[in-house]
Design goal:
ATP binding; 58% helix; nucleotide-binding; Heat Shock Protein 90; transferase; 467 residues; two-component regulatory system; five-stranded mixed sheet; transmembrane
């Protein structure tokens, strides 16, 4: 319905406000008209009295004609402190009110005018004013209010008609202006949003800001930013779905290949070569973890990370395995490792998942330090408190970039290095949440980065994580 639209309501409001403004003009205009009418009667009465003073011998017919032309019943002129009845005729009724127009303020004039319009019964009033051109001290007339009220009503009607015409004309102009400068741009935004809702992946439906009004231009810019981000997120979601299917297929085949490698690695353990004996356990452990990771990836492709298999595990061997594997990847770079984990510290966790989390954090630190080309150090420490176990991984690397801090633990957005995907941190945070704990960034900057793994001791936190 038109009246429920922005244009319709604006048209109605404009008409109402313009009419209110015209009414505010109408009231003082009518009061001024009444004052001018009374002053004109005083002036005509003064002219008639001057004619009589010029010739004292006038007939009664001429005197009546002068009073009729002046529109009054009698005229009193005060000159030289003498009050003199100049012209007189019969008064049809007693005088009801007296109005003195000398030095009266606007509010009194407005009040008298409104009372006159509200009083339909004719009355005889006395009007006092100053003579024109100082032709005396004052002039006083008596007159009927019937013609005064009729003239006021006629003048007021003309003012109201003119006000209505001006209101309608102004409302139409404002309606057209609002429709051109506001309604059409808003309608354009609505059409663009509707088109975008039908095909949000199509970048061609993203709005191009072109509004001339500042507020609408800001709204269009905000809408364009939101549409751009949403389109990118939808495309990323589609790519992630495709990537998930591909990873699941790759993990399935890779698991089969690693299973074969695992069979051959078992034979290496029986070798008599001392070097092979030292390397074989780590090789077997790495292949076993790779097989488990492939199986977990297949499970994740179906739903999510599997629930942790909690057990009492010693932390020191896990940290030692992680650091031992990372030392092999350092090469000739000047990078040292430090362990500060009590040998008897046992905690409740899934050993494979905990190894993945610590491995991801240590690997990220190693890659960040090596990328700088400067010497560095990576430290792993553990703390047993009353309510939880805390594992801290700190390094002397360059710190996390701003984007990584903003989208920390978000896949494909929170990468800690150039070309990184951020999957490691996202998976690690999910695995720790499965333990009922949390993965926190304690500090980062030019002096280095420190992450903390907090695992609760209470069973309530584990039950909540399981839910």
């Amino acid at each position: 319905m038109f009246l429920n639209s922005l244009s319709g309501r604006f048209l109605i409001l404009t008409t109402v406000f313009v009419m209110l403004a015209e009414i505010m003009i109408f009231v003082p205009s009518v009061a001024r008209f009444r004052e001018d009418y009374l002053l004109m009667r005083l002036e005509k009465a003064q002219i008639a009295s001057l004619a009589l003073l010029a010739d004292a011998q006038i007939t009664m017919e001429l005197e009546d004609e002068l009073l009729e032309n002046a529109g009054v019943f009698n005229v009193v002129l005060r000159r030289d402190q003498i009050r003199q009845l100049i012209l007189a005729s019969d008064i049809p009724s007693p005088i009801a009110q007296t109005f003195d127009l000398r030095g009266v303020n606007a509010w009194v004039l407005i009040g008298d005018a409104m009372r006159r319009l509200a009083t339909p019964e004719p009355e005889v009033i006395r009007v006092i004013g100053n003579p024109v051109r100082d032709a005396g001290l004052l002039i006083e007339v008596t007159m009927d209010t019937e013609s005064l009220r009729a003239e006021m009503l006629d003048y007021g009607l003309r003012i109201l008609i003119l006000s209505a015409v001006i209101s309608v004309f102004t409302a139409i102009l404002l309606f057209l202006a609002v429709r051109s400068f506001l309604v059409k741009p808003i309608r354009h935004v609505v059409d663009v949003m509707s088109a975008y809702a039908e095909a949000p992946e199509d970048a061609r439906t993203i709005i191009e800001p072109n509004a001339g009004v500042t507020e609408l231009r800001e709204a269009e810019n905000a809408l364009m930013s939101m549409q751009t981000q949403l389109t990118g997120a939808l495309k990323q979601k589609e790519r992630l779905a495709q990537l998930g299917g591909a990873v699941a297929k790759i993990s399935h085949d890779l698991r089969n290949m690693l299973t074969v490698a695992q069979l051959f690695s078992d034979r290496l353990e029986r070798s008599e070569d001392p070097a092979v004996k030292r390397a074989a356990p780590k090789l077997v452990g790495s292949i076993t973890r790779a097989v488990n990771l492939c199986e977990s990836t297949l499970a994740f492709g179906k739903a999510e990370e599997p629930a942790p298999r909690l057990d009492r595990v010693m932390l020191a061997p896990i940290v030692d395995d992680v650091i031992g594997a990372e030392r092999l990847a350092v090469g000739e770079h000047d990078l040292s490792f430090a362990e500060d984990v009590p040998a008897n510290l046992a905690l409740r966790a899934d050993p494979e998942q905990l190894y993945r989390v610590i491995g991801n954090l240590v690997r990220n630190a190693r890659q960040a330090i090596i990328a700088t080309g400067a010497p560095g150090k990576i430290s792993v420490s553990a703390l047993d408190t009353e309510g939880d176990w805390q594992i801290r991984i700190s390094d002397t690397g360059p710190g996390l970039p701003p984007k990584a801090q903003e989208f920390l633990f978000q896949p494909f957005q929170g990468g800690t290095r150039k070309g990184g995907t951020g999957l490691g941190l996202a998976i690690s945070a999910e695995l720790i949440r499965g333990h009922g704990g949390r993965l926190e960034l304690l500090a980062t900057g030019p002096e280095g980065t420190c992450f903390a793994i907090v695992l609760p001791k209470s069973a309530a936190a584990l039950d909540e994580a399981a839910e």
